[in-house]
């Protein structure tokens, strides 16, 4: 059952102080501290700063303590007040996938010391000179305060003979991980006889907590301060120098001599009280700043206050991480440990890939995540790309179907009296006129409209324009077969169409197919990558689709060549060809006659002028080759106009019908049958997400258990 998120005022519902602390201990027992920073007190210090002695004084437990490094891993001490002594010790592995730890039951404090030594020996045997695993000591008893502390290995600068030098940076890395946690109270332990400016732990704490809002400095070994040098320590205790919001506290725990002579923890506490009460300087200090007993009370209250302040944020973080876990688990999908699960997973992937390919080909860009992506969404709109390629193809075919013409250069052509020519009028236009006289100078004439003013060729007059048919005549002569010179031969026409025009459509046709194939291949890769397929499955999908494209591509190229070969035999039932031919034949003559009529104010024209125009357009003075060449020109223009449009439509239609549609049909079929057998899927769908899924599921359980625990008590 989904529980509501905690509101920000959750901490205002006050729990009993001890219960507040126990709540966080239970959350930590669920493993929540691996995912959410929980309020805690971490004891840190340089080697032999007296950390273990402080813990012993607070708990009554004799921690392994000597002049050398003793703590090899975080040691979490969970103390609760109870009528009888009982508890457990276990090794809590940092990696959640590790096997469950053996729990040692505790009935005496001596057993705690032995258990710590045994677990430390185990870590060393595993090759862990410094470990992220934690020794968790949970104790209830009549002499314990309600307090949870985590002791960290001491910072070291050198190692002893035979010790791993890598432990130096490992300790720093471990301590830094705790320092960085915003909900961790830093209990920085420093000896009184060491300059605070040279303390590595105080420097590290200042970097992580510049304002000192969560740093409480514990001053140990006050008996080692030289007589007369106490003033500097007093300034620290009173928080006058190196000020921190949580300030400082001083304790005097068992030193090495006391340990060697067997002084008990209880006797050490009494010695501490007597020492502070009798010392000339320390007895003048506020009692709340001195002694183990006051430190225990201070830490218990500080931890509880920190927990109460942090609970709303912890609860909000729980909600956020629960949502994230569920989302990530959904992305990983169901486990692939059965044929049914593998078939279901493969079907989902295949459906995603083919659906996106199909939409891209149809131009139905409804999948916003695939087609409206800012980076590649537009590039996935395949139909739009294909239309652009088809437009380029159509333009290329049209360019290669254009029969170019030019006007003949008649500068060297002679003129005779009685010939009709064009004369430039006063407004700059050209009008039809008849030559009446020739000058001795070449190319100067008089005309009917200009009987006295000699006209100069090109400037004042020109021959009637006629087509330059040299190129078309050359083609006609080169492609003639067995024919009569009276009419245009189909064989000649077909040869010219095939050799000069249709053959040039081959390159743009295959270029269009290449653009289709390349774009489809790119889109295929993106569609596969956008699915949940990875590794072997992704490679398999790519291989199946690529092989299919290659197979269809070979057949497609043959089909295209066949389509081009059909165009090599000119044929059409389209009447636009005949209409175009007749239009080419008649329109120039009709236009010339209309222009002749427009030159007359009363609409009457000279029969001679009409005769000249008709003779020009009927080419009565030209050879049969000229006549055939002109008809061939008009026939080519009329036919190629129709054939080019037909070909420009036919090739994209063939690519759609013989390449794209079969590709999608066969791909869907193969991904549902031959490429989706249980044997293939078992090989492809090995659950590479099993570990991640297990870890996420464990994390989700811890988060949901923690959330339920908070709601149960708040």
TrEMBL record:
Residues covered by the Dynamin-type G domain: 35-312
GO CC terms: cytoplasm; membrane; microtubule
Source domain of life: Eukaryota
Name of the featured protein: Dynamin-type G domain-containing protein
GO molecular function, one term: GTPase activity
Keywords, in A-Z order: GTP-binding, Nucleotide-binding
Matches recorded under CDD domains: DLP_1 (cd08771)
Domain GED: 629-714
InterPro entries per record: Dynamin (IPR022812), Dynamin_GTPase (IPR001401), Dynamin_N (IPR045063), Dynamin_stalk (IPR000375), G_DYNAMIN_dom (IPR030381), GED_dom (IPR020850), P-loop_NTPase (IPR027417)
Pfam families on file: Dynamin_M, Dynamin_N
Organism of this sequence: Saprolegnia diclina (strain VS20)
């Amino acid at each position: 059952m989904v529980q509501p998120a905690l509101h920000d005022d959750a901490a205002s519902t006050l729990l009993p102080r001890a219960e507040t602390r126990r709540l966080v201990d239970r959350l930590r027992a669920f493993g929540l501290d691996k995912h959410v920073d929980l309020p805690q007190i971490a004891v840190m210090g340089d080697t032999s700063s007296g950390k273990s002695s402080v813990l012993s004084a607070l708990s009554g437990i004799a921690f392994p303590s000597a002049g050398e490094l003793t703590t090899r891993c975080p040691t979490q001490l969970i103390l609760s007040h109870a009528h009888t002594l009982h508890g457990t010790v276990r090794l809590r592995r940092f990696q959640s996938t590790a096997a469950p730890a053996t729990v040692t039951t505790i009935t005496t404090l001596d057993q705690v010391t032995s258990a710590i030594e045994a677990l430390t020996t185990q870590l060393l045997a595993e090759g862990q000179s410094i470990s992220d695993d934690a020794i968790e000591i949970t104790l209830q008893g009549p002499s314990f305060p309600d307090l949870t502390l985590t002791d960290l290995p001491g910072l070291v600068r050198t190692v002893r003979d035979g010790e791993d030098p890598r432990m130096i940076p490992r300790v720093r890395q471990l301590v830094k991980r705790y320092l960085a946690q915003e909900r961790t109270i830093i209990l920085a332990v420093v000896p009184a006889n060491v300059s605070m400016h040279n303390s590595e732990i105080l420097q590290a704490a200042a970097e992580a907590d510049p304002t000192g809002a969560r740093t409480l400095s514990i001053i140990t070994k006050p008996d080692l301060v030289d007589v007369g040098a106490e003033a500097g320590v007093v300034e620290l205790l009173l928080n006058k120098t190196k000020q921190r919001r949580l300030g400082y506290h001083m304790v005097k725990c068992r030193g090495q001599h006391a340990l060697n002579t067997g002084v008990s923890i209880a006797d050490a506490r009494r010695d501490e009280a007597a020492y502070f009460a009798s010392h000339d300087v320390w007895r003048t200090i506020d009692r709340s700043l001195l002694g183990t007993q006051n430190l225990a009370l201070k830490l218990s209250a500080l931890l509880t206050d920190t927990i109460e302040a942090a609970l709303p944020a912890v609860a909000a973080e729980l909600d956020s991480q629960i949502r994230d876990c569920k989302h990530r688990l959904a992305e990983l999908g169901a486990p692939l440990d059965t044929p049914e699960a593998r078939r279901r997973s493969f079907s989902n992937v295949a459906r995603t890939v083919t659906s996106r390919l199909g939409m891209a080909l149809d131009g139905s860009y409804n999948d916003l995540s695939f087609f409206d992506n800012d980076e590649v969404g537009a590039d996935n709109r395949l139909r739009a790309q294909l239309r652009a390629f088809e437009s380029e193809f159509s333009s290329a075919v049209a360019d290669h179907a254009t029969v170019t013409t030019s006007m003949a250069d008649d500068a060297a052509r002679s003129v005779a009296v009685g010939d009709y020519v064009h004369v430039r009028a006063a407004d700059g236009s050209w009008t039809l006129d008849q030559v009446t006289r020739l000058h001795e100078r070449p190319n100067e004439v008089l005309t009917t409209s200009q009987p006295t003013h000699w006209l100069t060729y090109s400037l004042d007059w020109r021959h009637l324009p006629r087509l330059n048919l040299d190129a078309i005549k050359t083609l006609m002569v080169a492609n003639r077969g067995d024919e009569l010179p009276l009419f245009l031969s189909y064989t000649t026409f077909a040869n010219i169409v095939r050799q000069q025009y249709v053959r040039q459509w081959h390159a743009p046709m295959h270029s269009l197919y290449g653009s289709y194939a390349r774009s489809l291949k790119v889109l295929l890769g993106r569609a596969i990558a956008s699915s949940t397929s990875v590794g072997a499955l992704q490679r398999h999908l790519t291989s199946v689709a690529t092989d299919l494209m290659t197979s269809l591509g070979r057949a497609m190229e043959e089909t295209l060549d066949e389509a081009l070969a059909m165009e090599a035999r000119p044929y059409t039932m389209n009447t636009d060809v005949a209409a175009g031919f007749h239009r080419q034949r008649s329109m120039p003559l009709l236009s010339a006659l209309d222009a002749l009529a427009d030159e007359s104010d009363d609409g009457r024209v000279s029969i001679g002028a009409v005769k000249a125009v008709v003779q020009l357009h009927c080419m009565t003075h030209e050879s049969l080759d000229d006549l055939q060449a002109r008809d061939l020109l008009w026939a080519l223009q009329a036919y190629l106009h129709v054939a080019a449009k037909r070909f420009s439509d036919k090739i994209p239609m063939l690519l759609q019908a013989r390449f794209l549609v079969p590709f999608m049909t066969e791909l869907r079929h193969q991904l549902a049958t031959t490429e989706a057998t249980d044997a293939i899927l078992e090989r492809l769908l090995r659950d590479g997400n099993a570990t991640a899924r297990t870890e996420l599921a464990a994390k989700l359980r811890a988060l949901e258990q923690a959330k339920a625990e908070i709601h149960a008590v708040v």
